[in-house]
Every structure is written in C-alpha cells, then in structure tokens.
Amino acid sequence: MAGPFRLRLYVEPESQKRRVELAAPIFEADFQNGLARAAANTCLEILGEKETLTGLEALATKIEDALSRYLGSILAPAQGNIACAEGCDHCCHQIVGATLPEVLVIYGKIRELPAEQRRERISRVQQSRARAEGLSPAQRYSEEHPCPLLQEGRCSVYSFRPLSCRGVHSLNAEACSSTLRDPARRRRFQEQGEGIPCYREPGLTVHAMSAGLQLGVSEVYGLDMSPVDLTLALAWLLSNPSAVSEWLSGHPLPARLRAGHHSADPKRAHVTGERSPK
Fold first, then answer.
1. Interhelix angle for 200-215 vs 53-75, to 10°?
2. Domain of 241?
3. In terms of CB atoms within 10 Å, which end of the chain has fewer, N or C?
4. What's the pTM?
C-alpha cells in the first residue's frame, strides 16, 4: 500500500508476536491514542497472518463488545442521567457510518435467518436503499428514512449494532424527538448547530476505536476501510454475491457507499478517511 502510514509494525523479540504502534499521535487526547493503538493490535491478534470473512466478523464483534464494556465502566456513575431507553429510536433516522467488517456481522446474521424472515429483511433493506441513495445527510435525517433494521421502534440487531450506534448517549430524549420531528428545530440543528445534550466521552471513544480498526485492517492487510453508509453497504452485500470476495481481494469499495461523521475537523478526516456523501 502507498503511504503515508499511521502505524509502525514490529515483532516482539521474545514472543515473536507482531505488534503495531502509532507512528505519531493521531488524537489530542492520550486516552484516544491508547484506544486506537489497542484496537489496531486487536486486528493482528484476531486476523493473524491472513484476513478472512470469519476473522473480520470476529474482529468487529470483539471491538464492538470491548467498546460497550469500556463505555459501561466510564458511564456507570452517570447511568441515571442517560435518557436513552429501549424503544427510543429518535437517532435511528439518519446515515449510520460503519466499516465493512461491522456491516459484515449484520450481513451474516441476516443470512442465518429463516427463509421468510430473511426475504422480508432483505426486501426492507433494498426498499430503504432505493429511497435513500443519492440523498444528502440533511435529507436523510428525517422521519421518512428510518433505519431498515428497526422493528416497531426497536433495533433488531441491537446486540451486534455498529460502533457509531453504541456511542450515542443522550441526556434529553425530548430534545432528540423534537429535533428529528419538529421541522423548525431540525432546521436549527442542521443550519446553526443547535445540538442535543449528550455525553462527549462515548463519541471520543468511538472515534478512537474506529480509527484503530480502520488503520489496522487497511495498513496491515491492505483492505479498503473507508467508512460506509450502513444501509447502502448492507444492500450492496445482499444484492451482490461476489461483493465480499472482491473486497477481500483488495478491490476498493464503491464510492457511492461511502459515508462519515460529517466532521469539519481536518485532522480526523485525514486520519480516518471519513467524508460526507456529495
């Protein structure tokens, strides 16, 4: 792969295990750099010498579980202030950025469903893709564009949801609801940055662990880890039998699938490659 590289790969003298270190800090906060490094090393621990579909699914699951445990520990003292609850789906009506290994976990679970449920789920994903493709992030943030994995207001893939979904911890459910459903407030949110009160640490943690996952798989194994739109990427996998093998052989992901966190921070965009659809 062409540089610039963000990781340095080396072999531990005694154990002969491969390890990576950050070539330079990529975040201002030390704890984020530590989490990114740990996530990148988890890539080597799980994938070993060769990336496989099974290994990548296991890797995404490992990092997702690690993120949830870490957030559970740092947010334990503040649990009473978190407004998110079962059946609360206000944040599930927008573009969800994920890496392909995270999408592969959901793709595998859908393929394991009984035939009738599998057909229904695939149909829902494809219908959502048809409505969403080509729309801007602002247009996708709407009641008209629920995540296709929602069922009666509940996430049907909650236990294996992507990293970005795990980082949402609102302090005001009413603000979440009105920002989505009230056109005037949604416009202020999108145009003026009138945001929703939430804990900052989960978002910083997600950014760090996602960056480590992206860098570990892309720099060590040479796979395209550009963040993708969950709905579009899942529809692409479900309709293209050769999609996984093409990606594993080093083909870049289709540009139309790409998504990001829409951050204006040039440092983070430079590190992770995240971007917003045009």
1. 160
2. 7-73+87-272
3. C
4. 0.90
